[in-house]
Specification:
Organism: Saprolegnia parasitica (strain CBS 223.65)
GO molecular function, one term: choline kinase activity
Pfam family, one: Choline_kinase
Protein name: Choline/ethanolamine kinase
Structural class: alpha+beta
Family: Belongs to the choline/ethanolamine kinase family.
Number of domains: 2
Length: about 350
């Protein structure tokens, strides 16, 4: 990783996020900032003419702002530049996330780190395409995701191995209650939410799930289809840590209900949750690393995933309420939060029969 003696730069993307016109035409200043950050942090990017750099905003990210950057020649011809969203340190430790990122990169489970600046970093780009909402429903791709999940869950990462989901939900509950109280435009019945957390704890206690290293945010935008290996690659490990296995699988199942590039990206279509047959196929592919699973094994894993999916609704609901008070990303976080909370209350994803 090459770094100059110049102090790290901070990229201000707020003006870009608020601009309706094209990035190239209306945000020349930000183009210069991006080029400057690349020139001081990434080998091969010093003294590249601004006109020779192609910078494309990748939509769909809800925590950070991400740009694909390309220049005419190697090394590091194509890179990914990630600008951290404001206030996101409320959700995870940046220091731990960088440690996880590096360890997974060493194990060839993710992408490489090329450089860092004050409020972001630069990563290698995978040759291939990001999954779409339709892709993760494709049986062949879904099978690859299930098998990659199993390999991911077998990785040993040198961080605290205690499960965090309930601890994190309680923390986000306190944070959301405080932030929403200061933002008078948002109304949430936190007494009712506290009761739902208690209900969730009782439900999870009845369904044991092994503790493994989890991605915790495997939506379609965090899955790449590699053109080199014809396999899937998981990316974006900001929320990754040890958790019950069922939480990771249930979170992915719940993400089948969202299209972040559709007309209503903040609203889930819970009729699109994997059918019983689709769940069985996924769970069977996941378990096949240990040989042919029994029908009972498959059903037990389905129960895990469907039960812990309820925990994902409360976690992302609280996340959404917090983001509604602080994020500059163009997304209806409040409506998203209320949709996820409603999914918990109606048990919309609890398909166990």
């Amino acid at each position: 990783m090459a770094k100059s003696d110049a102090p790290p730069s901070t990229l201000n993307v707020t003006s870009y996020l608020k601009a309706a016109a094209s990035f190239e035409r209306e945000n020349e200043g930000l183009r210069r900032q991006v080029a400057g950050a690349l020139s001081t942090t990434v080998a091969g990017w010093a003294n590249v003419a601004l006109d020779d750099i192609t910078i494309t905003h990748l939509s769909g990210a809800m925590t950070n702002v991400i740009f694909a950057c390309e220049k005419p020649s190697s090394p590091n011809k194509k890179v990914l530049l990630r600008v951290y969203g404001p206030g996101t340190d409320a959700f995870f430790s940046r220091g731990e996330e960088t440690l996880v990122f590096q360890q997974l990169s060493e194990r060839e489970m993710g992408v490489g780190l090329l450089g860092e600046f004050d409020n972001g970093r630069v990563e290698t780009m995978i040759d291939g395409a990001t999954c779409t909402a339709a892709d993760i429903r494709d049986p062949l791709i879904s099978t690859k995701i299930a098998r990659k999940f199993r390999a991911f869950h077998d990785v040993n990462v040198d961080i605290d191995r205690h499960p965090r989901i309930l601890k994190n939900i309680h923390k986000l509950f306190r944070d959301a209650k405080s932030k929403v109280a200061a933002a008078t435009s948002i109304s949430v019945d936190f007494d009712a939410f506290a009761e739902d957390i208690g209900t969730l704890e009782t439900m999870l206690a009845a369904v044991p799930s092994p503790i493994v290293f989890c991605h915790n945010d495997l939506q379609y935008g965090n899955i790449m289809l590699s053109s080199k290996t014809d396999d899937v690659v998981f990316i974006d490990f900001e929320y990754s840590h040890y958790n019950p296995r069922g939480y990771d699988l249930g979170n992915h199942f719940s993400e089948w209900c969202y299209n972040y590039h559709g007309e209503t990206p903040h609203l889930g279509d819970f009729g699109a949750y994997p059918s019983v047959d689709e769940q069985r196929a996924f769970c069977r592919a996941y378990l096949e690393a240990d040989g042919a699973p029994t029908a009972a094994d498959v059903e037990a894993l389905r129960t895990e995933a469907n039960t812990y999916a309820l925990a994902t609704h409360l976690f992302w609901s609280l996340w959404g309420f917090i983001q509604a008070t602080q994020s500059t990303i163009d997304f209806d976080f409040e409506a998203y939060a209320k949709c996820r909370w409603a999914a918990f209350q109606t048990r919309a994803t609890l398909r166990v029969e």
